[in-house]
Amino acid sequence: LSVFYLVLVLILTLYPGQILCIGPDLVTKTCDATMYKELCKATLQSSSQADLKGLAQVILKTLLSTATQVQDGIAKSTTDPRLKDCSGQYEVAIDKIKDSQAALDAHRYHDINMWVTAAMTNAGSCNDGFKEI
């Protein structure tokens, strides 16, 4: 999972009052606040008419899809204990992303921040296990 998604979700959930436009201007203004502007714009381009909540939904859906693909690939790959640990880390991350989707619907933005951060931490723990090689 990319740090890009974490930053984008945090911007959308922690500062909703600071982004007052809608449509393409919202995508531009949101993406200009990230380190990966082009990736952000490519991800959100199809949602150019969405409001802030709609953009957050797109990001969480993209996060969930990416995390699920990674977890499925890891789970099928090998019996390496590090990969088994990664699979478990991604399962937890997927659960946190699903929790974040429910929290968005309930306007519990602090929970989204906490759970997306936890999901990113879990994915990062998987990556860290391979840096020791």
From TrEMBL:
UniProt keyword Signal present: yes
Annotated ranges, domain Pectinesterase inhibitor: 22-133
Keywords of this entry: Signal
Any GO molecular function: enzyme inhibitor activity
InterPro entries cross-referenced by the UniProt entry: Invertase/methylesterase_inhib, Pectinesterase_inhib_dom, PME_Inhibitor
Entry-linked Pfam families: PMEI
Superkingdom in the source lineage: Eukaryota
Signal peptide (from-to): 1-21
Protein family according to the UniProt entry: Belongs to the PMEI family.
Protein name: PMEI domain-containing protein
Annotated source species: Cephalotus follicularis
Organism phylogeny: Eukaryota, Viridiplantae, Streptophyta, Embryophyta, Tracheophyta
